[in-house]
Amino acid sequence: MRYFLVTTEHLEKKVWFRDFDDFRTAMNLVAVVSMTLRVNVLAFILMSNHVHFVLECEKWKAEMFTNELKKQYSRYFRLKYGVKELLRGNKNDIQEVSLEQESLERAIAYVLMNCVAANICANPFSYIWGQGVHISVELLPD
Fold it and tell me: What is the CATH number of domain 3-139?
């Protein structure tokens, strides 16, 4: 299988997400679109003016996933705020990630740590709009 790091272009003067419901809607759309297109999402994070993903799929599906997510989210945004064309022209950067020299692990870390790099939080576990996962010690096998 092939792996891709996907980043959308940062919006200069607009934001994707204005409130809690916007983020929650996008989180749900990530699940729906990935299931519909059968794209494995290994890591993702939703930032205020862009998004990052690590996907397991073919490149054309990575492009389709990102475009469909933006299309469905734009529809929601238009209905809620009356804003047309929020993400029209918002480019995708899709880079294949190799399995050599821990490149896949680095891509996942980059995505999960984006909120820390942006000084939003101290660790990815406290940022709820991504896939930073905290595993409780009680759940680990002996």
Answer: 3.30.70.1290
